[in-house]
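From the methods appendix. Each design record in this collection lists the tokenized structure first, followed by the designed amino acid sequence. Records were kept in a plain field format so they could be parsed without special tools. The example shown here is representative of the layout used throughout.

RECORD:
FOLD TOKENS (339 positions):
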């Protein structure tokens, strides 16, 4: 939004684009106004319509007539270049927002979970799908479920670019939402890389605090080719993405029982529970807290980047229906239909 000098205008445009980006369906100016008002932003329907005419002209939104507007992929890219000062702590606040909005019912096995979305050129999918399979097979991914969308199809509000395919993987923040619904507040402290030896976590090699970053840590690690998930799947030795979480120590026993139920729903991803008040992999926790290591939902995507595949990932992209996911053992059949 470099062409707009007025910082107030920039922020209002950003707010409108954020509303559209978080909506799974196209919406009109009246609904946008209502959502913004809940966030403390007062804009008239007329003002929003004027802004939408501007975003249409910039290619950031698409006018669908009476159905309203939807954000374009170009609009999503524009959001990533918004005012950096406004984005500090964005990842941390997004974790809390999505965990609260998630409505997955563990006992009924229905509702929405949080999805990461990654896309790549279609030509690479059949060549490397077996490597994604191996990550899940070795229990290095978040859960056992995922989804794949062909070009021009949508995942949430994301439309897959032409000649590309998108892979939706379960975001580890889904655990935060499940634990929250069962009375256990889970705090996400940082994203990290952890070295495995013989399949066991040994030490942190990199950490990025969620409070101090404008980009999801795993996106950074994957772009920087800093993982070695492929080696971990073959030998048990490698470097994988992991999130460090904390829970109240008084809830530890309940959390362990809940984790077993989560695994039955193929959403499990806890690599290790710590000990109350004690460091986990030398990372200290406050008194009354217990550390948890949670596998990164983007580990299956990291293995693509390690093989030189150009892949773009959007962590914590959207809420997605649990029953629309498939087990990883079915992905090869689905890929054959797409390719």
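DESIGN:
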């Amino acid at each position: 939004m470099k062409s707009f000098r007025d910082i107030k205008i920039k922020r209002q445009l950003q707010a409108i684009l954020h509303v559209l980006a978080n909506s799974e369906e196209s919406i009109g100016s009246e609904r946008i106004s209502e959502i913004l008002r809940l966030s403390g932003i007062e804009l008239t329907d007329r003002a929003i319509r004027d802004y939408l005419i501007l975003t249409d002209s910039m290619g950031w939104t698409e006018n669908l007539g009476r159905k309203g507007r939807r954000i374009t992929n170009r609009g999503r890219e524009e959001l990533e270049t918004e005012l950096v000062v406004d984005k500090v702590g964005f990842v941390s606040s997004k974790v809390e927002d999505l965990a609260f909005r998630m409505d997955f019912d563990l006992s009924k096995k229905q509702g929405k979970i949080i999805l990461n979305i990654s896309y790549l050129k279609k030509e690479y999918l059949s060549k490397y799908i077996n490597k994604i399979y191996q990550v899940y097979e070795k229990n290095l991914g978040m859960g056992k479920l995922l989804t794949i969308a062909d070009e021009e199809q949508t995942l949430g509000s994301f439309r897959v670019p032409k000649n590309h395919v998108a892979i939706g993987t379960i975001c580890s923040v889904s655990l935060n939402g499940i634990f929250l619904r069962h009375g256990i507040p889970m705090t996400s402290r940082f994203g990290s890389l952890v070295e495995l030896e013989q399949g066991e976590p040994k030490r942190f090699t990199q950490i990025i605090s969620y409070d101090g970053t404008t980009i999801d840590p795993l996106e950074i690690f994957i772009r920087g080719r800093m993982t070695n998930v492929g080696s971990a799947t073959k030998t048990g030795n490698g470097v994988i993405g992991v999130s460090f979480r904390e829970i109240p120590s008084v809830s530890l026993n309940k959390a362990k029982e809940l984790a077993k139920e989560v695994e039955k729903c193929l959403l499990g991803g806890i690599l290790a529970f710590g000990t109350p008040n004690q460091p986990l992999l030398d990372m200290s926790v406050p008194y009354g807290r217990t550390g948890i290591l949670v596998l990164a939902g983007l580990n299956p995507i990291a293995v693509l980047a390690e093989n030189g595949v150009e892949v773009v990932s959007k962590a914590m992209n959207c809420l997605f229906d649990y029953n629309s996911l498939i087990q990883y053992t079915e992905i090869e059949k689905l890929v054959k239909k797409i390719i």
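APPENDIX NOTE: Residues 1-5 have pLDDT under 50 and may be disordered.
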